[in-house]
TrEMBL record, chain A:
Coiled coil: none annotated. The lineage of its organism: Bacteria, Bacillati, Actinomycetota, Actinomycetes, Propionibacteriales. SUPFAM superfamilies: Sigma2 domain of RNA polymerase sigma factors (SSF88946), Sigma3 and sigma4 domains of RNA polymerase sigma factors (SSF88659). Pfam families: Sigma70_r2, Sigma70_r4_2. It comes from Nocardioides alpinus. GO terms for molecular function: DNA binding; sigma factor activity. This is RNA polymerase sigma-70 factor, ECF subfamily. InterPro entries: RNA_pol_sigma-70-like, RNA_pol_sigma-70_dom, RNA_pol_sigma70_r2, RNA_pol_sigma70_r4_t2, RNA_pol_sigma_r2, RNA_pol_sigma_r3/r4-like, WH-like_DNA-bd_sf.
Automatic annotation (TrEMBL), chain B:
Residues 102-231 form the Anti-sigma K factor RskA C-terminal domain. GO terms for cellular component: plasma membrane. Residues 220-240 are annotated as: Disordered. It comes from the Bacteria. This is Anti-sigma-K factor rskA. It comes from Nocardioides alpinus.
Length: 212, 240
């Protein structure tokens, strides 16, 4: 099992007014997701490939955290994307619909696997070893999904914001250390971190809304 | 004071000591900004722990291989499903999708009997139920064995009533319709709409079930006036 190599530190130094124009970038991304969803619904196989490439790590990590078994997570990931393809006509294209929809399918697969496990006498011991109440498990799943959606949202931030947010929140670097690392003024770094947090919040809210 | 820019609220989350006191004072008296602040704090709490783990190599190829597997030609499966709707008014994917579902159902039925929990027949009548259950079908999702409730055929006097009690059908737009599919995989009849979304009763001619119309299917139907099956089945099970 390997984790996504992240981030690739930019070799060039950033400077200037990098904070402007971000909302346009975000709108372009929204349009991109919407048209990707539309192509998927229309039955375009290359759209499925792109959807897989973009969200398979999200789905796989969710399944891995929820099922705590590499083999089951692999199987569930495969089933999620095949099921997504076969029920693609149920997807209503909107900016956040795709990840919300994929997580929804993954949630069902996870319940299926848990159900199968509880039916399987051989694994009774494994179930007994995880005596969490159903609601607790569900709440934990929700939180994992939220964390992963946020993580995915970081991936999709335009650089240098992506790198800055990653260094701030995942590497725990101070704003001054980040400024040194990426070669940007302290004020610019702070602004990126703030705007990054706002964007992550918007992404999470969007996916939660679509998940209903 | 008007609402605080989310950017300033983010600053308050990230560096509370550096935030101007007017922002803090506003949030204390403005529930809307307080909610945004709480949501931003929540996101701050959620970041920093997870990393994404790529799916193992090979999954992508298997997904694409399965996606490229075409369902059998529609003619092989649905030929006798006469439709009153002119073909031209149908949406393109309807038949193939339905055919795939039906083919899957037929395969499922053919391979059934092992590993499937079926309500014993005859099942004990429910206390408030005056009729006797003559057959029952465990409903499951199509792409998995997830429980979707049960359908019971109850015989009262000379009438057979199909009592559908489904669950977790999802909240997709449209309405839910109940069908009986013949085990020969080529014929089906519509029983009616599940008016309250997941439960309903339908009177069925006794002969129909005896003729082999034993697969209970629940579809979601768009409100498009097309009386044929949408091709989107939410649950299925065979009366036994």
């Amino acid at each position: 099992m390997s984790t996504v190599a992240f981030p690739t530190l930019p070799s060039r130094r950033y400077g200037g007014a990098v904070v402007t124009g971000m909302s346009e970038v975000e709108e372009e991304q929204d349009d991109g997701v919407r048209s990707l969803a539309a192509r998927l619904v229309a039955g375009d196989e290359t759209a499925l490939e792109q959807v897989y490439d973009r969200w398979s790590a999200l789905v796989h990590t969710y399944a891995l955290r929820a099922l705590r078994d590499a083999g089951d997570a692999e199987e569930a990931t495969q089933q999620v994307f095949v099921a997504a393809w076969r029920s693609r006509h149920t997807l209503v294209p909107s900016p956040h619909a795709l990840p919300a929809w994929l997580i929804g399918i993954a949630r069902h697969k996870v319940s299926d696997v848990r159900l199968a496990r509880s039916r399987d006498a051989d694994r009774a011991a494994a179930v007994a070893a995880q005596p969490e109440a159903h609601a607790v498990v569900e709440a934990a799943d929700e939180e994992v999904a939220d964390r992963l959606v946020v993580r995915q949202a970081v991936e999709e931030l335009p650089d240098p914001r992506r790198t800055i947010v990653f260094l701030a929140f995942w590497e725990g670097l101070s704003h001054a250390e980040i400024a040194d690392t990426v070669g940007l003024p302290l004020g610019t770094v702070k602004s990126h971190v703030r705007r990054g947090l706002v964007t992550l919040h918007q992404q999470l809210e969007g996916v939660r809304r679509e998940s209903r | 004071m008007s609402h605080v820019d989310p950017d300033r609220l983010a600053e308050l989350v990230l560096a509370p000591d550096d935030s101007p006191s007017d922002v803090r004072r506003h949030v204390e008296s403005c529930s809307e900004c307080a909610v945004t602040l709480a949501a931003l704090s929540d996101v701050r709490r959620l970041v920093g722990e997870e990393s994404l783990v790529p799916a193992p190599a090979g999954v992508r190829d298997r997904v694409m291989a399965q996606a490229r597997t075409r369902p059998p030609p529609a003619d092989d499966v649905v030929r006798p499903l006469a439709s009153t709707v002119p073909a031209a008014s149908r949406r393109g994917p309807r038949i193939p999708v339905w055919a795939a579902g039906l083919a899957a159902a037929v395969a499922l039925v053919a391979g059934l009997g092992i590993g499937r929990v079926t309500v014993p027949e005859p099942a004990a009548p429910e206390p408030e139920d005056p009729g006797s259950v003559v057959a029952a079908a465990d409903l499951t999702a199509l792409d998995s064995d997830a429980d979707r409730g049960v359908a019971r055929a109850v015989s009262v006097d000379d009438m057979v009533t199909l009592r559908v009690s489904a669950r977790e059908l999802g909240d997709e737009d449209g309405f839910h319709e109940v069908w009986l599919i013949n085990v020969d995989g080529t014929r089906m009849v519509a029983l009616g709409v599940l008016a309250d979304w997941d439960t309903g009763e339908f009177q069925v001619p006794r002969g129909l079930i005896e003729e082999g119309y034993r697969i209970v299917d629940i579809s979601v139907e768009p409100e498009d006036g097309d009386p044929t099956h949408s091709g989107v089945s939410l649950a299925r099970g065979e009366l036994a």
